[in-house]
């Protein structure tokens, strides 16, 4: 036992390395993880005292545990058996496919990434690009939502800035869980999006197994009370107008709730912009038969560098107003009591109707709508009519001359409208953008009082 054993130096060093790794994996790493986990739990506890809707434990669960919970759910187990029987593959192969789908869908939420990085970045970008305005159709109804209910924000989809803008404005409510399309499944963007609690979905998956795994995840999140955000249109509006709803996610939410159980409250959210950053890409895509957005990374990088250059030389101006309005919420329990047959279709119609009613009026779409209807107007009349319409809409209680002037300048500079001898009219060059923005104005917008309308008609006739 006391004899000396000689070892080669390389073997001795190898033994030391293995010993160090074993010590770290069994003693050091668990202690470090426990230390940071405890600090994170205390930080989340303090954060929850400031949020209107606290972060649910489901959202904070380890990603590996959530994946295991998902793939061993009876719903997924039955889907695995059905897939194996229909395709003739072994159940073990079908099970691995389900595991792969679960790993693709399940997020890895980080409270630090969301509240320390994402919220600050969203605030910075929103205020850098736009003058942000928030309003309510019924603020009291939003504030008095049952604290035990699951809240789902349902929004129209105008721009990829929608994610940024609503994340910023909802920062005092809770951490939102978005359904994100395949466009974001690129590294390192995918890691950041998962850390923010978003989950990826395949818009056109023909696999029933995949749909069952996704439905199971949405059910778990809804039952756990996770605050969610969804775009029922399923993609960006190519025309500026509100599109037809896709019922997939809505069906999963309804299927995951039981009458008499936890209530789900849908909050309509309507967004509108003076300038949609992707407007040229979207109007070009509208001319084709497929939704293909050919936005090359070089073009995007060049555009960002151009904006930075303008800021450095003092010539940068924001793109006008970005307005968000919360509509009147809908309780699923109350809605089910009144609609006993086709609940899903009726609910989709009701939500889209409330989003449509809540769409705020902002200067640039208002000007496009006005000129599209009247062809040519005096510049002073344009300002007066738009200001009156916005005052009635409530987007701005006192519409500033600067907001309308900036919108007019943008339209003239981009050759959508022309300004000659104090008159504003269509330029005839970028009709697609004129129609796009006119379609984004609320459908029931009215311009001017009777006296002003009479004078405008007379000036237009002369």
**Beta-strand percent range:** 5-15%
> What are the segments in which pLDDT stays under 50 over at least 5 consecutive residues?
none
Number of strands: 11
Largest sheet: 8 strands, mixed
Helix amount: 55-70%
Please report the number of helical segments: 20
The whole-angstrom Rg is 27 Å
Assembly of the depicted chains = single chain
The chain-level structural class is alpha/beta
End-to-end separation = 115 Å
Shape: globular
Overall mean pLDDT stands at 82
Question: Tags for this entry?
Answer:
three-stranded antiparallel β-sheet, 462 residues, single chain, alpha/beta, globular, eight-stranded mixed β-sheet, 11% strand, 20 helices
Task: Outline the structure in words.
- It is a single chain.
- The chain has 462 residues and is α/β, with parallel strands linked by helices.
- The protein is 55% helix and 11% strand.
- The chain has helices spanning 9-48, 57-60, 63-71, 74-87, 91-105, 111-129, 139-143, 161-169, 189-195, 208-223, 248-255, 279-287, 297-312, 332-338, 343-358, 363-374, 379-393, 401-413, 431-440, 450-461; strands at residues 131-136, 150-155, 177-180, 199-200, 228-230, 264-273, 321-326, 330-331, 376-378, 417-420, 423-426.
- The strands form two sheets. Strands 1, 2, 3, 4, 5, 6, 7 and 8 form an eight-stranded mixed sheet that branches. A three-stranded antiparallel sheet has the order 9-11-10.
- Helix 5 packs across helix 10 (208-223).
- The radius of gyration is 27 Å and the shape is globular.
């Amino acid at each position: 036992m006391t004899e000396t054993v000689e070892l080669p130096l390389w073997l001795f060093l190898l033994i030391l390395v293995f010993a160090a790794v074993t010590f770290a994996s069994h003693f050091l790493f668990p202690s470090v993880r426990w230390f940071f986990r405890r600090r994170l739990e205390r930080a989340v506890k303090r954060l929850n005292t400031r949020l209107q809707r606290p972060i649910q434990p489901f959202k904070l669960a380890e990603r590996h545990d959530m994946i295991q919970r998902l793939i061993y759910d009876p719903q997924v187990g039955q889907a695995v058996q059905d897939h194996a029987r229909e395709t003739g593959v072994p159940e073990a192969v079908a099970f691995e496919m389900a595991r792969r789908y679960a790993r693709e869908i399940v997020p890895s939420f980080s409270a630090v990434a969301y509240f320390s990085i994402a919220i600050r970045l969203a605030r910075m970008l929103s205020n850098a690009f736009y003058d942000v305005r928030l309003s309510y159709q019924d603020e009291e109804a939003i504030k008095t939502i049952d604290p035990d209910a699951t809240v789902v924000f349902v929004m129209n989809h105008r721009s990829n800035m929608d994610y940024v803008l609503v994340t910023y404005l909802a920062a005092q409510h809770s951490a939102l869980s978005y359904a994100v399309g395949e466009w974001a499944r690129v590294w390192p963007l995918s890691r950041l999006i998962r850390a923010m609690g978003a989950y990826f979905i395949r818009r056109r998956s023909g696999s029933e197994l995949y749909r069952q795994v996704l439905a199971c995840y949405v059910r778990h999140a809804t039952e756990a009370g996770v605050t969610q955000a969804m775009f029922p249109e399923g993609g960006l509006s190519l025309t500026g107008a509100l599109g037809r709803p896709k019922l997939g996610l809505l069906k999963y939410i309804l299927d995951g709730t039981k009458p008499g159980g936890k209530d789900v409250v849908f909050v309509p959210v309507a967004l509108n912009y003076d300038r949609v950053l992707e407007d040229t890409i979207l109007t070009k895509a509208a001319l084709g038969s497929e939704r293909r957005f050919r936005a090359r990374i070089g073009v995007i990088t060049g555009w960002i560098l151009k904006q930075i250059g303008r800021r450095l030389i003092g010539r940068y101006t924001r793109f006008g107003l970005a307005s968000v309005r919360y509509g009147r919420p809908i309780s699923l329990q109350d809605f089910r009591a009144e609609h006993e047959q086709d609940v899903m279709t009726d609910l989709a119609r009701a939500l889209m109707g409330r989003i449509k009613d809540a769409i705020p009026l902002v200067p640039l779409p208002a000007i496009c709508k006005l000129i599209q209807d009247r062809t040519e107007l005096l510049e002073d009349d344009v300002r007066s009519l738009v200001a009156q319409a916005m005052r009635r809409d409530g987007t701005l209680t006192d519409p500033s001359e600067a907001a309308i002037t900036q919108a007019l300048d943008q339209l003239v500079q981009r050759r959508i409208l022309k300004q000659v001898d104090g008159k504003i009219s269509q330029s005839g060059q970028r009709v697609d953008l004129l129609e796009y923005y006119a379609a984004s104005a609320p459908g029931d917008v009215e311009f001017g009082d009777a006296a002003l309308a009479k004078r405008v008609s007379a000036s237009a006739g002369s």
